[in-house]
């Protein structure tokens, strides 16, 4: 696979940042082995915040598109009990995430999502997606919505597209973009009942693990 930017506006720093993010994602999936054992440093491709936000969206769209093409490269597997190498704390943490329910609501959509034990993002049956899409909707999102409609996972229901069954996405942003029919940063849009975003919750989990 070759990743490009249609606007040809990726600098070397952007490319290093994207590469580092994708390598970490593949490394989190025990289904795959990376022959090169060298891992990117935390400051690889360090970018200003606006550029980082843009590249995070690029990474999420990459994961969505690659998944839609049938390659399960970037799905993170967290806390799989069958993996002997997993620390007990990770298994407990994954069990607790099953009870977490995130919400994403607005004009023309109302969706609920929980975290699967394998680190996927499961939009629940009964969730309602927006029928219309924006002119800037990512191609990967358009392809995903078309596939879900063709397979019956989504069906038209009045002013909404209804999820007829649970569906697992590889990232929070892919789930949010499919629901809203537009480019979306799911890490800040999916909210817990107490108002915390997914990013806030993930940060709190990281802080607890570091203690």
Write the layout of secondary structure elements.
Blueprint: H1 12-27, H2 49-68, H3 88-97, E1 101-106, E2 109-115, E3 121-123, E4 128-130, H4 139-151, E5 154-157, E6 160-163, E7 167-169, H5 172-180, H6 186-189, H7 198-210
Antiparallel strand pairs: 1-2, 2-3, 3-7, 4-6, 5-6
Helix pairs in contact: 1-2, 2-4
- DSSP summary: helix tally: 7
Radius of gyration: 17 Å
- The helix content, as a percent range, equals 40-55%
Strand count: 7
Distance between the termini: 39 Å
Structural class: alpha+beta
The largest sheet has its strands arranged as 1-2-3-7
Q: What features would you describe in this structure?
A:
- The protein is an alpha+beta fold.
- Helices cover 40% and strands 14% of the residues.
- It has seven helices and seven strands, in the order αααββββαβββααα.
- The strands form two sheets. A four-stranded antiparallel beta sheet has the order 1-2-3-7, covered by helices on one side. It has a three-stranded antiparallel beta sheet with strand order 4-6-5.
- A hairpin with a 5-residue loop joins strand 2 and strand 3 (121-123).
- Helix 1 (12-27) crosses helix 2.
- The longest helix is centred in the first third of the chain and has 20 residues, at 49-68.
- It is globular and about 50 Å long.
- The protein starts with 11 loop residues before the first helix and ends with a helix.
What is shown here, in short?
By secondary structure, this protein is an alpha+beta fold. It is built from 7 helices and 7 strands. The strands form 2 sheets. The protein has a 4-stranded antiparallel β-sheet with strand order 1-2-3-7, covered by helices on one side.
């Amino acid at each position: 696979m070759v990743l490009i930017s249609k606007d040809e506006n990726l600098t070397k720093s952007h490319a290093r940042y994207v590469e580092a993010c994708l390598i970490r994602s593949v490394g989190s999936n025990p289904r795959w082995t990376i022959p090169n054992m060298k891992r990117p440093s935390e400051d690889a491709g360090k970018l200003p915040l606006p550029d980082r936000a843009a590249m995070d969206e690029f990474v999420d769209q990459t994961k969505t598109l690659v998944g839609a093409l049938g390659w399960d490269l970037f799905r993170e597997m967290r806390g799989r009990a069958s993996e002997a190498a997993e620390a007990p704390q990770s298994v407990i943490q994954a069990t607790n995430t099953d009870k977490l329910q995130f919400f994403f609501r607005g004009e023309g959509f109302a969706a609920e999502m929980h975290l699967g034990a394998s680190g996927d993002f499961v939009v629940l049956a009964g969730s309602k997606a927006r029928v219309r899409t924006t002119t800037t909707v990512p191609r990967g999102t358009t392809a995903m919505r078309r596939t879900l409609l063709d397979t019956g996972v989504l069906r038209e229901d009045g002013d909404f597209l209804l999820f007829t069954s649970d569906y697992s996405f590889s990232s929070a942003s892919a789930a949010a973009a499919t629901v809203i029919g537009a480019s979306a940063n799911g890490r800040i849009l999916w909210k817990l009942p107490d108002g915390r975003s997914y990013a806030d919750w993930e940060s709190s989990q990281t802080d607890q693990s570091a203690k």
